[in-house]
User: What shape does this take?
Amino acid sequence: MACNPAGQLLEARIDAFPRSRALRVRGPFRVDLPYFGQVAVPLLRIVEQHDHVRGLVDMASLLAYFGRTIVPLHAWSFRLPDRPRLPLPKDPRLPRRLPGLPPPRIVWLPMSDGRPVRLTHYAPPAGVMARPDPVLALHGYSASGTTFAHEALPEGGLAGALCRRGHHVWVADLRSSAGLESSREPWTFEMIGCQDIPMAVAYVHGQHSGQVHVVAHCMGAAMLSLGLFRRWPGDPAFTPHAAACRAMPERMGRLVLYQVGPAVTMSPANLARAYVFQWLKNYPGFGAISFRPSAVPGTAEDMLDRLLCAVPYPRSDFFRENPLWPPWKRTPWVAQRHRMDALYGITFEVQGMSDQVLERIDEFFGPSHMATTAQVIWFARSRLITDMQGRGAFMTPDRMSALRHRPVLSLHAERNGLVDPDTQRTLTELLRQAGAAVRAVSLPGGHQDSLIGRDAARVFAEIAEFLETPADNPAAPHPPTESSHEHAGV
Assistant: This one.
């Protein structure tokens, strides 16, 4: 029932090998997807044929053969997912009031080109002594401030957990936020990193007496790195807010980098996607995308969702997406999850997510622009954060002097579908060479699970303890929580 056609094509288990007694590893063996992207040779091509018509007929015959073979075996694999419930609440992907906390204060910061940045300020509840250093939270791409503040999350998200410990928390919705209309436009990561983030840091710094601690998730950490370390004279992405960009390191306190930083190693599947993107980005229609299915989907959309059901997932995911009991239970989040994962890799493990969050998954992820996503092609090639032109030479220890003696917490999920676990080692080594006081922690689960999953409260406590560690020993180890363990030294 839970078999998968793509999984059968990409994985194999070898139990015996003819005339060989030396076989020790029994698998599973997996196809090396990045290899095909690197050699840039199609797996299927017509080498020689009498004419074009006969070549097309041969290709059609081959496709028909695969259809006759696969469809009878995998008819249930190409099932149509349940459609999402309608309608959505007003501003579903923007942070709003959290239970047990005072109403948040909303601030709109206009940028030089008129595009606003939204800041949501959560203050500690009555009776809790406020801490002087505020916290600024930066979301990833195709996400929004709901990553850190949503009533369906444990403790209301990271914002709620930190507020109850006395922190003033500012949740940013950058121009790429899925909660803003500007997310549908093509932006470069350096434009956001050199304009939106420095202005947000400057505003929050002006509202409090202490330095601004920054928690940056995924591509939010990539954008922050570009704002901190990228300097090109006369660059239009840098000049409008040059003063705020130059002053940002002095205004910042402790830094939490979640999954990504100045260095990044993409997962094998995402390396293959990056090489595919380098061709797709040149085609018309490579623009704004939305993961939510249409209210009245057409035949092409239904076909896409059926095909995406055949993408390889852990076996346990099949039964969460297709519950056997009760038989009438619907899973309206499946189609959106598959569309996201087709573009980015497995974003979260469903076994680590509550039903409440899955039912409202549309409030955590939303529209984006493929041209911005294509910048990841350069990340995959260089294993560094680069600008849109692929320039990443500024990500060196000497250029990263702003991190010298700065406490940095690097968090990384072990079963990450977007970023390879090797990122933890590479990033930690680079940060330590730059003189940062790094504490590296590996987390179980997937890419987004530890912020919006069932066990997110344990990660919130890890971040809070780091932010509240005495300044004289910022990187001092402490007993790890049940959900995490110390990463071995590099």
